[in-house]
Amino acid sequence: MDSEQQRYKQLGDFLKTRRARILPSQTGLLTSPRRRTPGLRREEVAQLAGISLTWYTWLEQGRPIQVSTY
Fold it and tell me: How far apart are CA 70 and CA 59, in angstroms?
């Protein structure tokens, strides 16, 4: 694995571990009693960050994505 691929993987690992540590109540999000995810869901992180769910998922998966100049 080259260094660029390793950086993407490290970013994905970082995002996953941080997402698991944050409770919805810490961000002001409402929770339901039937919650299977201990931390935030991907959808919630994407909403809070102001990005699409797909974009956040790709970041967390460590995909080599690039921002368009347009």
Answer: 20
Given this model, what pLDDT does residue 67 score? 77
Q: At what angle do helices 53-61 and 3-21 cross, to 10 degrees?
A: 120
* Residue labelled with tokens 């993987």: 9
The pLDDT confidence band at residue 30, using thresholds 50, 70 and 90, is confident
- State the Cα angle at 55 between 51 and 57, rounded to 5°: 115
Phi-psi group of 28: left, alpha or beta (phi > 0 → left; psi -120 to 50 → alpha; rest → beta): left
pLDDT for 52: 92
